[in-house]
Amino acid sequence: MSETENTPAAPLETIASSLRRERDRAGLTLTELAKRAGIAKSTLSQLESGTGNPSVETLWALGVALGVPFSRLVDPPTPQVRVVRAGQVPIVRSEQSTYGAALLSSGESGARRDLYVLELEPGGVRHADAHIPGSVEHVILTAGRLLAGPEDSPVELEVGDYVSFSGDVPHRYEALAPGTTAVLVMEHR
Amino acid sequence: MSETENTPAAPLETIASSLRRERDRAGLTLTELAKRAGIAKSTLSQLESGTGNPSVETLWALGVALGVPFSRLVDPPTPQVRVVRAGQVPIVRSEQSTYGAALLSSGESGARRDLYVLELEPGGVRHADAHIPGSVEHVILTAGRLLAGPEDSPVELEVGDYVSFSGDVPHRYEALAPGTTAVLVMEHR
DNA sequence: TGGCAGCGTTCGTCAAACCGAATTTAAGGA
DNA sequence: TCCTTAAATTCGGTTTGACGAACGCTGCCA
Q1: Nearest CA to A145 among A124, A182, A176, A183?
Q2: Which residues, other chains included, contact A127 with Cβ-Cβ below 8 Å and sequence gap of 6+?
Q3: Residue B11: closest CA among A31, A77, A9, A74
């Protein structure tokens, strides 16, 4: 609210890129997403190409199908280059050692971070092409085993491990054990 | 069902009431607002009555004329404490269903988010006084059991559960089982 | 090489959102 | 009470978004 209300970029372009990005992330094809959202794929095609001016109901259906809130599609993202590697950071404990915390990543002001939970099963590899330059992905493995990171140098994670890497190069997620779950923080300026 | 981020009530009704409320607050007549937004007052009338299905451009123009961000018109007010139980959030899966993700929280542009891992043991209570107004804490429990939240209304979490609450009131963390770990995202503007 | 299947774009058709004008409703003021 | 002014709601006409079908494209397999 205290922000700039008159977002410079036309909302339609923002919607176009947001739509493409989220569909990408969800690993859905245009056809599949259109079917799930209950809209014609031609409509979706035009929206992603920046042509058109969707109604609220149409956009809403897409948000539901993608599992993201409405505003996520209209508010513009922003990239910024920042990669933080952690995992070897010792957890600082309080006196009775019943509570400890370690800072994994300190966010830049102006950055935008979205919080996801992931569920993956072995047998498939989730590939992701480079998205917006400057985006960073943070992953904390909470169950199972996971191979994640850039295509050329993926990292194998045990439960509790943390990895972050730039999202602007092709990268992958591959579960190595059943019931693999992780927390994903996707950061884009 | 307080899923304010993923599947709120019908957007059209939210928009209708939001429009009326904001126009009220701004002290504008329907005619005046329509003129400023550059739309027909008949259109606005129908929108406020809940009839109709505005296009993005139309809604955008109204947001600008009212001096409020787009999202304020479509997102219903968020509760102070939000709990999402494991499995409660619809995880959007791709075809092979080896990969799925659900958005727990969408970050505001301009907000700052720090990423922590927590480890807690039973027997101690971690109290935290109010911090900076406007800060929000997000917690995903990854192991054990945890009691967390505002002092007067803490929430008991199972593994996989998610809770977010305002950090500007006194709150607490208390492990209910050995080996309790959690991911904490602290957000402040 | 040909055929098949899935993905994405382009093209007419139709319903609906948007608009401008007329109509109704509300509130004073003499 | 009647008249005047302004706000808000309906009422046809036009523009445009959404749909379905058809089309090109690509990768795969026999």
Answers
A1: A176
A2: A151, A170, A171, A172
A3: A74
Tens of pLDDT, residue by residue over B137-181, are: 888 888 889 888 887 778 888 888 888 887 777 788 888 988 888
CA-to-C1' span, A59 to C5 (A): 29
pLDDT digits (tens, 9 = 90+) for B112-132: 666 777 777 777 666 666 565
Among B170, B185, B187, smallest CA distance to B130 is for B170
Task: Inspect the interface and report whether the beta carbons of A91 and B7 lie closer than 8 Å.
Answer: no
Please say whether the beta carbons of B149 and B127 come within 8 A: no
Q: What is the torsion angle, in degrees rounded to the nearest 10, for the CA atoms of residue A180, residue A186, residue B1 and residue B7?
A: -110
**pTM score of the predicted model:** 0.63
Report the alpha-carbon distance of residue B161 to residue B156 in Å, rounded: 9
| Nearest residue in A to B179, CA atom | A98
Partner-chain contact B69 A5, CB within 8 Å: yes
Residue with tokens 């935008």: A112
